[in-house]
Write a structure and sequence with these properties.
This protein has helices at residues 2-7, 10-59, 131-138, 153-156, 159-199, 217-266, 273-302, 313-319, 344-361, 404-409, 417-427; strands at residues 76-80, 86-89, 110-117, 120-128, 144-150, 309-312, 330-335, 339-342, 366-373, 376-383, 431-435, 442-448. By secondary structure, the protein is of the alpha+beta class.
């Protein structure tokens, strides 16, 4: 089983591929080298036999055939007439039949041959005596001179191939070992990362994988894993904190509901059933509101974003804003193209929540303005109430956080409206924050503006100033 796992490892696969590739390459090189060595040796031997035969022919005179010039290099020389009779031969070739029966033609008067005689292979060069020389020496009778050399031992046996094969296998083994060592050292950080990841549990997400010092793919993987672990730890901690807040927020109305029902059961004669049912329905309505807001908030943080669609915030501000029953007017001002990409229903919910909150805390009026600025659509909702202290401007966006003034003016609120609004803004790649205002509270929503299909040509004036989004 362990061997099977090893063969499936990246290290083993890389070494196997390297071995096969090296075997293929070195096999081709070995075959080419074997052929080149054989051709080189044969070419040198044929040069020697050709030279020996040519020199013997040059020494022949009419009526006198000199003895072959014996050399150590070319011991086999024969002169054969047109009838295949050996007229002269070197001592080593004396008594032999012709070294070859092949006879060169006039057009191709030199042949290189390989012939095996008496259990020995020889390399033979056959040269046909030219017609002019044949007419002077033998009255035109064509003669052929054969010069032969015994085939060298390296060509007559398979020793050359065996040597090349051994060198090929050795080279393949060296290459495979090098790849095995290099890949092993390269993947060693991966094994360390795997070991550390196996030690990480949901109960303890503080551990991080070791990061190699080099900025290669493995180093980038380790840093990406650590970044993911950091976000996972943050998400788990947030979920734990959120679950704690949810349990705290639900405990109070559930306890109140249970108390009411216990009283109705234990003291049926002393408790007004109709009043108990009405109070229980009110508590159940609050529970449902809290649960609906929690589900909305959770979906915004975890669910995938819906397909974006063009949303004209100017139309939303002018036509789709909700207002409360308070006699506080809402004044709107939209300047320019304020279209964005996103979910229309979610953005309408954000603006309605901001406007309803502003009306709840305003004294006399609420201003809603929208304009395009630096590639963003900036929506400002401002009231003329008491405002929000700087220390509370970030805290109010946390789930279930409610200020004293908010509890007093909206006792049935869940404390999730602003948290949902900010989560919606973040999901749309925007921001929602409280900014300074001369009077009251000013909530500013910034969303990436949708680029127009046909942008307007630049004006010929000195340019336009950025719109003042402050209504006061």
């Amino acid at each position: 089983m362990r061997f099977h796992k090893r063969t499936r490892s990246i290290r083993a696969r890389c070494a196997t591929v390297a071995a096969l590739f090296a075997l293929l390459v070195f096999s081709v090189i070995g075959v080419a080298l074997d052929i080149a060595i054989r051709k080189t040796i044969e070419s040198r031997m044929w040069v020697m036999t050709t030279r020996a035969a040519s020199e013997w022919i040059a020494r022949m005179k009419p009526g006198r055939i000199p003895a072959p010039h014996l050399t150590v290099d070319v011991p086999l020389l024969q002169l054969v007439d047109s009838h295949g009779r050996v007229e002269a031969a070197s001592p080593a070739a004396a008594g032999w039949p012709p070294l070859s029966t092949a006879r060169p033609t006039y057009s191709n008067h030199i042949l290189h041959l390989e012939r095996c005689l008496h259990g020995q292979c020889i390399l033979v060069t056959a040269i046909r005596v030219s017609p002019q020389e044949a007419s002077l020496l033998w009255r035109g009778d064509p003669h052929v001179v054969y010069a032969g050399l015994p085939e060298p031992y390296i060509l007559a046996t398979t020793r050359l191939e065996s040597f090349i094969l051994a060198m090929t296998l050795l080279a393949v083994a060296v290459i495979t070992w090098i790849i095995w060592v290099v890949v092993g050292k390269t993947l060693r950080p991966v094994a360390d990362i795997r070991t550390r990841v196996s030690e990480i549990t949901v109960s303890d997400l503080r551990l991080r994988v070791p990061e190699p010092p080099h900025d290669d793919e493995i180093g980038q993987l380790a840093r990406a894993v650590n970044h993911t672990l950091a976000r996972l730890e943050e998400a788990v901690e947030y979920q734990r904190h959120f679950a704690s807040l949810v349990s705290h927020e639900l405990r109070t109305p559930i306890t109140a509901l249970q108390t009411r029902l216990d009283e109705a059961v234990l003291y049926p004669d002393q408790v007004d059933t109709r009043e108990t049912i009405a109070a229980s329905l009110s508590i159940a309505g609050r529970l449902r509101a809290v649960i609906d807001d929690m589900l909305m908030f959770t979906r915004l943080r975890t669910a995938s974003a819906p397909s974006p669609e063009p949303v004209d915030l100017g139309v939303v501000i002018n036509d789709e804003l909700l207002t409360t029953c308070r006699d506080v007017p809402v004044f709107t001002h939209v300047e320019g193209d304020v279209k964005v990409l996103g979910s229309g229903s979610q953005l309408i919910g954000v603006l309605n929540n901001l406007v309803v909150n502003a009306q709840r805390h305003a004294n006399t009026r609420v201003e809603v303005s929208a304009a395009r600025l630096d590639g963003h659509v900036v929506v400002s909702v401002t009231d003329d109430g008491d405002g929000i202290a700087p220390c509370d401007r970030e805290r109010i966006f946390k789930p279930f956080v409610r200020l004293d003034d908010g509890r007093r003016k909206d006792p049935n609120g869940t404390g999730l409206g602003l948290a949902i609004s900010r989560a919606t803004a973040v999901a749309h790649h925007g921001t929602l924050q409280v900014e300074d205002s001369p009077r009251g509270a000013r909530f500013v929503l910034r969303l990436p503006a949708m680029e127009p299909k046909h942008p307007r040509p630049p004006s010929s004036g000195h340019g336009t100033e950025a719109p003042d989004l402050d209504p006061w």
